[in-house]
Amino acid sequence: MSSEPDLHRAISMKPNPFHHHPPRSERTSSPHPASSEIAVSRKDGISTSIQAHISDEHDPVARHVSASHESDVERQSPPQYTPDSDPYKLASALKAESEMAAIRANTSRKRDGFGPITLNKSAYKARKIEKFYEAQNENIERLLKPVDDHRREAKEEEGANHLKYRIAVVGSFVANIILAGLQLYAAASSKSLSLFTTMADSLFDPMSNITLILCNRAVKRVDGRKFPSGKARIETAGNISFCALMITVSVVIIVESIRTLVEGSKSETTKFFLPSVVAVAIAFFTKFSLFLYCWAIRNKYSQVRILWEDHRNDLFINGFGILTSVGGSKIVWWLDPMGAIILSCLIIFLWSRTAYSEFQLLIGVTADTNTLQLITYISMTHSPFVKQIDTVRAYHSGPRLIVEVDIVMDPEESLRATHDIAEELQIKLESLPDVERAYVHVDYETSHAPEHFLKKEL
């Protein structure tokens, strides 16, 4: 099985002070019926076959209850799982806190022996087991969570109700704008190639946010007749152009640095300009403060982790730029252009990696395994009249996902019931965060050839 695509470096996934996705209309589905006894048989890959035993007394409507009036209310007690909300009894696999505490107690044992390297093998295994069950609990709770709760948590992570998240996002955006001005002054006044490199990297941080904001406005003002599927991918296309521009600037700095090295210098050192070094030092310590703040909450908000990694990279670039600029003025002149070359190569590598992630989004890379599992489980439990799940696909179309689900229903079922169940499933899937469009295909058997082919033969 191939590894999952790593898309967290894409600019499209980076948070900004404004909601960079247009608001989605709130949709609800029908009330749920009584529970049914369903047996599951899994296939390899993303296709999952589900056999359901259906009684004729059930109505062809969705299983999950849509509770839009409770979607923004915090749960005050642990959820109580019933046969309707947990038909496959996944909750029985949840590890209780007492069991987790027993496993956790094994990790506090003393080391075997007296050496600093000889560790307790039992404690190491216990830590791995603890992490496994923690991940399993999180996965089960995520699958059993209603769609409304997924949507509510996504809204909260956008920062509407969390001050720490807003401080990290807005603080980083404002700091990037101010620091870009400081670094521009430092580079122009000192004429240091190393500081010009750090300035270019700092200047493009707020520009990337501005690019997302402008693309967001373009997405909202879409002509449905000209762009029937929307213009969400304009963000990804703009980010790829932005990456190309950043790489081009870095190449220009490399060429200028090489020219400076070839021409040489009449003096042993370059001119030292203290205000420039102070300006870059201020930028360094500001980034360090933001780095520490984002580090503290990086595991609570997935998007803050992107900011944390961005600040971490800027710390290295600014710190190395200060060292080579001061080294060129105090030790030997060629340290400055050599440092500019090294930094520019690093920036080209980082932005090329970002561009690769953006290209994956644009081409249509598959969603991660957790998302595929969630979509599969929602489709499985949508209605007792869904006999099987033939195929589940989810792939990116820009920053959001396109979902395709093939369900199997009774061939004798009425057209009205079949249509209503499929439409309700479509609405439910499109209510998930980051799902742009969902397509539900209804069939009556699973032995047919695939409806779509990867390679079209003309």
From TrEMBL:
Domain Cation efflux protein transmembrane: 172-363
Protein name: Cation diffusion facilitator 1
Keyword annotations from UniProtKB, A to Z: Membrane, Transmembrane, Transmembrane helix, Transport
Membrane-spanning segments: 165-187, 193-215, 236-255, 275-295, 315-333, 339-356
Entry keyword Transmembrane helix: yes
Residue stretches in coiled coil: none
GO biological process: inorganic ion homeostasis; intracellular monoatomic cation homeostasis
Protein location: Membrane
InterPro entries: Cation_efflux, Cation_efflux_CTD, Cation_efflux_CTD_sf, Cation_efflux_TM, Cation_efflux_TMD_sf, CDF_Transporter
Disordered: annotated span: 1-87
PANTHER family found in the cross-reference section: CATION DIFFUSION FACILITATOR 1 (AFU_ORTHOLOGUE AFUA_1G14440) (PTHR43840:SF12), MITOCHONDRIAL METAL TRANSPORTER 1-RELATED (PTHR43840)
Biased composition (Basic and acidic residues): 54-75
Organism ancestry: Eukaryota, Fungi, Dikarya, Ascomycota, Pezizomycotina
Domain called Cation efflux protein cytoplasmic: residue spans: 375-443
Highest taxon above the source species: Eukaryota
Topological category with respect to the lipid bilayer: Multi-pass membrane protein
Pfam families, sorted: Cation_efflux, ZT_dimer
CC annotations in GO: membrane
GO molecular function annotations of the record: monoatomic cation transmembrane transporter activity
